[in-house]
Design brief:
2 copies of one chain form a homodimer. The first copy, chain A, is an alpha/beta fold. Chain A has 13 helices and 9 strands. In chain A, helix 11 links the parallel strand 8 and strand 9. At the A-B interface, strand 1, helix 3, helix 6, helix 11 and helix 12 of A face strand 1, helix 3, helix 6, helix 11 and helix 12 of B.
Chain lengths: ~290, ~290
């Protein structure tokens, strides 16, 4: 059986061109929109119409979307996210792709692609499925190099890019390869680049205590600078990014902001505001008399 | 094989108690929230936390949510909505139920439950499935009495309420049993009540041309009055309801406003506004210099 290598390199190259074009078009930094805007075709289309070029459906967000086992927070989803079937993820990607067209870049979180401390197998067919469903890449959170290398090899075989992340050894929730100091961040990033990771991110959802409104801790700035200055591939920041601190994140020079919860929260508030127009009104009127 | 009748009557009674309680709590009129707030567990939970008591997941909205065949409007979904599998609908209902708890009333649009001009079969197992998934009732749009009677009989067998709708013979999109005059509306409503329909709605999404902002055509008011005054069951208005005209609808005395598109549009706008905070900023700054 032949699996054509050159074609799959070309597929990945086209995907990375999409990413660099988005970064350039948005003046040096763009958004990877995730959460409800990544997995609901109605909202994916809406944000793409507003200029979003990068989307990320993922399995924990889908667990929330589907009310799987009643989970309502990303943290609770951590224990059951692997139960979201890869065919379900493929269906979501296909649906989003159907409505947004070929151009936007889609990277997907799949069961097995994060650090899942429960056995999850990924077959060649699974990578083929994601690739055929319309995914450009896989959004991953492996926390050691052996697992990441295996994943990169299979993803590349089927023309999928890999964005991988750097965490901190003290993280309560493991979402990347640990690096304690800015120097270690640079080392890990360089090694990731060597093994072929197509985009490298830093987990930034640490404690923001003691930091002024709109600011981010200097340690996060230092770690982001270490990342950005050590590799040539597009870089990402994920975790804790919101409207208030987005300017501070922008100034670090990181290429892509991964935002899910902050957008989801604004969308939920809008839904609550919307329904309020259609209920309780007589009660309010009665009270005002 | 026994299918217990008394228990299923009790189940329906409990469902209708939920509906009347919501109407009372909201001062005589409540909201049946549909569209994205009916089928996405994240937003269903959000609106329930804001006081919504009645939700409606349905198959055309799910076709949009899933990007099925790339459709992006409810009208386009009309041709393919029957392809949404009933097991998919059951999964959605179970997920929404998981996150909102037992109390809110859920009525569900299922393939076959609307006027589908393509053969769609519904088996006893399908009704059982919807009932077990956590649905209180079925939101239906049959357009003749024979079909409606068959549906009511099976739904009641499995303890599901039925909300059915009255349309107009000139409707471009068929969403109910036709009634040309207010007198016919009253006649159709009474016959629906006789055959056991648990809640009766009027399609109100006609042309609003020539009507002042916030107003609704007098013919719609007359038709709603005819409906409300002719039956004892809860009444609904569906179609064309938005923030501006909700007060005019409220004054007709109809018990329930079915709102989907208006809420979806506000949610989409919020998503667009949310992402705008994270893109284009450098460009904007550059332009302002």
């Amino acid at each position: 059986m032949i699996m054509f290598k050159g074609d799959m390199i070309k597929k990945r190259e086209q995907a990375i061109v999409k990413v660099w074009s988005a970064i350039e078009e948005h003046g040096g930094q763009t958004l990877l929109s995730t959460g409800i805007t990544g997995d609901d075709a109605r909202l994916a289309k809406a944000v793409v119409e507003s200029g979003v070029k990068l989307l990320e459906p993922n399995h924990p967000a889908l667990a929330l979307a589907r009310g799987h086992k009643g989970v309502t927070t990303m943290h609770d989803a951590e224990n059951i996210r692997h139960e979201i079937d890869i065919h379900e993820m493929a269906k979501v990607v296909r649906g989003v792709r159907n409505t947004i067209g070929r151009d936007p870049y889609i990277t997907v979180g799949i069961p097995g692609g994060f650090t899942e401390v429960i056995p999850v197998e990924l077959t060649d067919k699974d990578f083929m499925l994601m690739s055929h469903s319309g995914a450009d890449g896989l959004h991953t959170h492996k926390s050691n190099f052996e697992d990441l290398e295996e994943l990169v090899e299979k993803a590349h075989k089927y023309g999928l890019t890999v964005d991988a992340y750097i965490g901190h050894p003290d993280d309560l929730h493991t979402f990347g390869i640990p690096a304690r100091t800015p120097e270690e961040v640079a080392q890990v990033a360089k090694r990731m680049e060597e093994i072929g990771v197509d985009m490298i991110g830093l987990m930034t959802g640490m404690s923001y205590e003691g930091v002024g409104a709109g600011e981010i801790p200097s340690i996060i700035k230092e770690r982001l600078h270490a990342l950005v200055s050590s590799v040539k591939v597009p870089t990402l920041a994920e975790g804790g990014i919101n409207i208030e601190n987005s300017k501070a994140f922008r100034e670090t020079g990181v290429h892509i902001l991964v935002v899910g919860t902050a957008i989801d929260d604004m969308v939920k508030t809008a839904a609550q505001e919307a329904v309020s127009h259609f209920i309780n009104q007589k009660t309010k009127e009665a009270l005002s008399k």
